[in-house]
Write a structure and sequence with these properties.
7% of the residues lie in helices and 70% in strands. It is mainly beta. The protein has a 10-stranded antiparallel barrel.
Length: 272
């Protein structure tokens, strides 16, 4: 017995999508006017409390945050960003190991996935109206242009066994690596309500079917940032991310749609 291509891809994409949040916060708008003209650096560990819907070849699977957590063995998410004047660069890294066991009739499955996601973004402030008082930003807003790339790497391992009445009829292991890049472009706006409260939202589109990339990738984030001290900012918000890609050709062509949404929490450490 051999697992069919459709089933193998469904097992892969069972895990995809929910670790891919980019919950970064722009640190420039909280800082004093003089500081905002110089270099700054921030590190932001965060977590996405998401649910997801996956559609593979017409077969749909919906998972809640609790269900996703139950199959996560380990995971870590971190953003590092650097800014100089109107220019910014960030790298969003995610590492995760997921695993589960399943049984359907005589078929027993043990699944493991190692997932790495690297999201690189360059930004440039094209418009800004921030006002200062006593060397502090008190109000204003800006618009930033965004461009970058997202790299996905998923390593799936499936151990399967088919048995009847205690007799093993077939067993084996499937290793299914998958990786691709998505070009992403977008726009971001940030509003400073006070020296301690900042609101921000951004949207990115990408993929565009270039090479092995997604046919369409969409990414929307809304962020509330609260400055606790000069070095610490607490971030909370909401994110909706989705993509559509097609793998294979001809009879083996398989369309996949992933939709992820939910709140996120993070803490930024800012150095300047």
């Amino acid at each position: 017995m051999t697992l069919k291509l459709h089933n193998r891809h469904f097992l892969i994409l069972f895990f995809l999508g929910f670790f891919s949040v980019n919950a970064q916060v722009t640190n420039q708008n909280f800082n004093e006017e003089e500081d905002r003209k110089n270099w700054s650096f921030s590190i932001t560990p965060y977590a996405l409390l998401a649910s997801q819907s996956t559609n593979v070849g017409g077969t749909r699977l919906t998972q809640s945050f609790g269900e996703l957590t139950s199959i996560t063995d380990a995971g870590f998410q971190l953003i590092a960003s650097i800014r100089y004047k109107r220019f910014g660069l960030s790298m969003d890294g995610t590492w995760a190991e997921l695993g589960t066991e399943a049984q359907q009739g005589p078929l027993n499955l043990e699944l493991q996935v190692k997932q790495k996601i690297l999201d690189f973004t360059a930004s440039y402030v094209i418009f800004e109206t921030f006002q200062t008082e006593d060397n502090r930003v008190i109000e204003g807003w800006n618009i930033e242009a965004l461009a970058g790339g997202k790299y996905w790497s998923n390593e799936l391992r499936v151990d399967y066994e088919v048995s009847l009445g205690g007799i093993v009829l077939d067993q084996g292991r499937i290793d299914e690596p998958q990786d691709w890049w998505d070009l992403m472009v977008g726009v971001k706006t940030t509003i400073s309500l006070s020296p301690r409260v900042l609101l921000s939202s951004w949207i990115n589109f990408g993929g565009f079917g270039i090479g092995n990339s997604s046919k369409m990738a969409y990414d929307f984030t809304y962020l509330n940032a609260f400055r606790v001290s000069r070095l610490i900012t607490i971030n909370a918000g909401f994110r909706n991310f989705r993509y559509r890609r097609v793998d294979g050709e001809g009879d083996s062509e398989l369309e996949t749609r992933v939709n992820v949404l939910g709140p996120f929490l993070g803490v930024s450490l800012i150095f300047n």
